[in-house]
Amino acid sequence: MIMLNHNPHIFLSVAEKGNITETAKELYISQPAVSKAVKNLEDELNLKLFHRDKRKGLILTDVGSRILLIARQMADMENRMYQTAFRSNNFIGGKVKVASMPIVTTVILAKVFAEFKRKYPFVEVELMETSAAGIKKAVEEHQVDFGITSSPFGKLDFEVLFKDEMIAVSKNKLNDLGVISFADISEPLIFCKSGLEIISENLKNPPVNISKSFVVEQAGTVIALANENNGIGIVSRLVANTTPNSLNRYSILPEIQTDMGIAAHNINDLTPVAAELKRMIVEKADVIK
Fold first, then answer.
1. C-alpha angle 144/102/246, rounded to 5°?
2. Distant-in-sequence, close-in-space partners of 21: CB < 8 Å, separation ≥ 6
């Protein structure tokens, strides 16, 4: 990319990495050159973009955070220009950035990315794995072209891929009904962060005592802990169906159902490359509906 001024391009990398050394490595330039580019941009704008902290390193100022958002939008427009030009010449190239929950990466994106790279070898694909809230924030702040996350989607535009629900999984048989209420669970609960976010977003007063619960990073860890009888796991049905296990499954009362979907600022205004990747993801998601 050459249209985005050199200094904002370097600032964008420094701001996202929070580290001059890592930026220098990524861009194959010296650390003094990175520092100079940031200083030159500050001088050009007559603004202080970073606070320099001896312990925490570079921290964006309030105005620096606003400039970062604009720099991301500038980079996105540049990417769009090149992709449009490439497509007019019957060539697919450029960059696409996607944010996803780990389980969605495992079930859908791993296969889609492999097929996409075979079909479009000149496209650079970047993946950010984080929680549902982290994905929505990444989309809102223009860090990614689109995200795959759970409802509610807030003010973001979205297209539902499939419906899911939270269920309880247990090594021991809890009852013969196949349904259990949060109020009837006395054992420790096991959540992943994304699952806990979904519950908090869908229930106004979640009947969950976090102090007596395990909260882990990955949904697969919930299954592993429940499988060793460390408590009752609370996971999505998608996780239970796609992670090898022989745990007993129970629907939960109150019901916690959610939509999994693609979220963006404008679904119909994705870059050509992002639109093609989205199309392939939708096709793959149809298989698991």
1. 160
2. 31
Token digits of residue 75? 């980079």
100-120 tens-digit pLDDT:
998 899 999 999 999 999 999
Task: Provide the whole-model pTM.
Answer: 0.75
Tens digit of each residue's pLDDT (9 = 90 or more) over 66-77: 898 888 888 878
Q: Residue 212 and residue 174: Cα distance in Å, rounded?
A: 19
SS3 category, 279: helix
Q: How far apart are CA 285 and CA 289, in angstroms?
A: 7
Q: Which residue has the tokens 């079909």?
A: 119
What is the DSSP-derived secondary structure letter of residue 231?
Answer: S
The separation between CA 71 and the C-alpha centre of its own chain, rounded to angstroms, equals: 20
In this predicted structure, what is the pLDDT of residue 1? 40
DSSP string, 143-206: SSSEEEEESP-TTSEEEEEEEEEEEEEESS---SSSEEEGGG--SPEEEEHHHHHHHHHH-SS-
